């Protein structure tokens, strides 16, 4: 059973190592699937940023963008207040 599973994954291992050695470049569709599987952005996967955004954070940002202007302003006001409080606490505890 283990041998069967290994042999089924062998083509993926070979292709994956070719990506790692820069012998082959993935298509955009494959890059999207890789990024989704690793739960990183395409920019992070491509090395265009070193900022690793958590998928749940990105999803919340997308949800906020869908809000109307008034609700968005309320969310940002609460977020600003929370971040300000956190920075203040951090400054006084150090």
TrEMBL record:
Coiled coil stretches, renumbered: none
Superkingdom of the organism of origin: Bacteria
Gene Ontology molecular function: any one: DNA binding
Domain HTH cro/C1-type: 17-45
Matching InterPro entries: Cro/C1-type_HTH, Lambda_DNA-bd_dom_sf
Short name of one Pfam family: HTH_3
Gene3D superfamilies named among the record's database cross-references: lambda repressor-like DNA-binding domains (1.10.260.40)
Designated name of the protein: HTH cro/C1-type domain-containing protein
UniProt source species: Niabella ginsenosidivorans
């Amino acid at each position: 059973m283990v041998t069967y599973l290994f042999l089924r994954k062998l083509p993926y291992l070979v292709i994956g190592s070719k990506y790692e050695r820069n012998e082959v470049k993935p298509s955009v569709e494959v890059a999207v699937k890789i990024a989704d599987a690793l739960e990183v952005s395409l920019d992070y996967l491509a090395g265009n940023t070193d900022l690793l955004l958590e998928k749940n954070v990105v999803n919340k940002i997308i949800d906020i963008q869908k809000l109307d202007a008034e609700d968005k302003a309320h969310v940002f006001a609460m977020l600003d207040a929370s971040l300000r409080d956190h920075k203040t606490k951090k400054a006084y505890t150090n």
